[in-house]
Amino acid sequence: MKATMKDVATLANVSMSTVSRVLNNPETVVPEKRERVLAAIKTLKYHPNALARGLIYKRTRTYGVLIPDVSNMYSAEVLKGMEEAANVRGMNLIICNTDLNKDRKHAYINVLNEKQVDGILYMSEAVFPDDYKVMERLAIPFVLASTHCLEYPLPSVKVDDEQGGYDATLFLVSKGHKEIGMISGPTTDIIAGQSRLQGYMRCLRDHHLPVNVDKNVQFGHYRFQDGFEAMERLYQSNNITAVFCASDEMALGAISYLHSIKVDVPNDLSVIGYDNTKVASMSIPPLTTVAQPMYEIGYKAVEKLEDLINGNELKQLRTYLPHQIIERKSVKEI
């Protein structure tokens, strides 16, 4: 028969409240009693029930995480930061892969609410009015990671993607490139797709270079095959000398297509990516890219969520972390 907290208290000759304090705030219990309780726990092989403890302390020590694509390399790095921040706080994560499906996302939010998670980390997707209605009716704090929402007062942690797109294009301009193409995320993606494209166009305008979206921009969904196919369309339609890709994975797809038609990167055409995922340094040639602090985004999102849970005043509602250009071997000065 499974041991209970009462069994531990009886064996250790202490009250149940003392056992509870040993489990949750051991420093508040005198060493002699604490050792008796720990010995009883070991003897009885007692494992406290997380949900039962949550009912007592109003905490289940669990966060929910909503991720649009758990297989994505970028998501994995952000999740690593979340997991580390949760671990040092004695928290656990429940990871939900929404697959960019609204109904699935809302169903997961309801499941997480039923499991009485302490808070939810909402990653990478935009927040639409129907999403916010679901959030608002639940008494659960939400923090956005790698996304933000200007319409509703939701705390968030991300980089400034418009400025990141600007700086990627500026790097190419600084290397002497004037005919610059882009492989963008979809314009329906208001978080990264539109903003990085807007940064690219703003930089071209600031430097009096041609802005021709119809000719010089192709679109995809951030994946390798999207980059491969977009580069084929882009290369055949104009005489660009450089291309800015809105993700590292698309940049690798673009480089792969160029290699297939014997176009050398960077001698014949330069490529810059976005994210600085692990594959950026593994590609041939190593990829110059805009580095997002992915781990830090995840870590700080958890810190912000804990502040909300504990009733602490947030220093910033929307936090924007700095990005940087990592120069490797895929861009040539001309």
Automatic annotation (TrEMBL):
Keywords: DNA-binding, Transcription, Transcription regulation
Matches recorded under SMART domains: HTH_LACI
Classification via Pfam families: LacI (PF00356), Peripla_BP_3 (PF13377)
Domain of life of the source: Bacteria
Gene Ontology molecular function: DNA-binding transcription factor activity; transcription cis-regulatory region binding
InterPro entries reported in the protein's UniProt record: HTH_LacI (IPR000843), LacI/GalR-like_sensor (IPR046335), Lambda_DNA-bd_dom_sf (IPR010982), Peripla_BP_I (IPR028082)
Domain named HTH lacI-type: residues: 3-57
Name used for this protein in its record: LacI family DNA-binding transcriptional regulator
UniProt organism field: Anaerobacillus isosaccharinicus
